[in-house]
Design a protein that fits this description.
Oligomer: single chain
CATH class: Alpha Beta
Number of strands: 8
CATH topology: TIM Barrel
Distance between the termini: 15 Å
Shape: globular
Number of domains: 1
Strand content: 15-25%
CATH architecture: Alpha-Beta Barrel
CATH superfamily: Aldolase class I
Number of helices: 11
Bound molecules: pyridoxine-5'-phosphate
Strand order of the largest sheet: 1-2-3-4-5-6-7-8
Largest sheet: 8 strands, parallel, barrel
Radius of gyration: 17 Å
Length: about 260
């Protein structure tokens, strides 16, 4: 039975540290605790402006992470040098805008296909697994296979936003879910591994984990926010259990 892996994004541990330019809390220690609690992967986004994760964090995480290290980064020459130096297990390419609060949309793989193809080839040559963070669009997923990526991470932000705020009508939520399902099925069809992330919360993780094509979830803000109140091990464990429970139910339903 394929249960979804949980990648925990520890960026926001660093956000709290950087708010005071202090030495604590340390995302490296947080990552170890997440792994103890059952995380299958540690994810960090090294942003150009270094607003949360710092180069030092990434170097230490490479030495200490015992599961997998997933580096989210923009497709820039600086980040390519960093990836070669650090050699994360996975690089997830994301679009990045300086002013955004968080990553707002998926990569435009169609619009940047030539540049991305060259960039991905360099990472692949260095034996790094490459995922592209894309909106749940069949066309973007198909193009991701053509530019040589190994995987797509479907942007779940719009679906999650519709779920959380309730401002979108039920049909919008259903439509966003359908887009995720179609994109996930397309990924499998074009032989890409399928991951998902962004905005996933304890209340909506079941809807996403029940899409059986998705093999990995990357979740940050909701887990770290909950960790402040209940502790990081409990926060990770509860999320992992909800995801696995939903997947078990979805697989059982498929069988019957
Ligand atoms: N996946 C990607 C590609 C992201 O950019 C982010 C945000 O850094 C996440 C997952 C995690 O999103 P959230 O913090 O909303 O769970």
């Amino acid at each position: 039975m394929l249960l979804p892996r949980l990648g925990v994004n520890v960026d926001h541990v660093a956000t709290v540290r950087q708010a005071r330019h202090a030495l604590y809390p340390d995302p490296v220690i947080a990552a170890g605790l997440c792994e103890l609690a059952g995380a299958s992967q540690i994810t960090v986004h090294l942003r150009e402006d270094r607003r949360h994760i710092q180069d030092r964090d990434l170097l230490l995480l490479r030495k200490t992470v015992q599961t997998k290290l997933n580096l989210e980064m923009a497709a820039t020459p600086e980040m390519l040098r960093t990836a070669f130096e650090v050699r994360p297990d996975t690089v997830t390419l994301v679009p990045e805008r300086r002013q955004e609060v968080t990553t707002e949309g998926g990569l435009d793989v169609i619009g940047q296909k030539d540049a991305l193809k060259r960039f991905i080839a360099e990472l692949v040559q260095a034996d790094i697994h490459v995922a592209l963070f894309v909106d749940p669009s069949v066309e973007q997923v198909q193009q991701s296979a053509r530019v040589g990526a190994h995987a797509v991470e479907l942007h779940t932000g719009r679906f999650c936003e519709a779920s959380a705020i309730g401002r979108a009508a039920k049909e919008v939520r259903a439509e966003e879910h359908r887009r995720l399902v179609d994109a996930a099925k397309t990924a499998i069809k074009v032989k890409l591994a399928c991951y998902a992330g962004h905005g996933i919360h304890y209340d909506n993780v079941a809807d996403i984990a029940s899409i059986t094509e998705i093999e990995e979830l990357n979740i940050g803000h909701s887990i770290i926010a909950r960790a402040i109140l209940v502790g990081i091990e409990r926060a990770v464990r509860e999320m992992a259990e909800l995801a696995r429970e939903a997947r078990r139910a979805a697989l059982l339903e498929k069988r019957t």
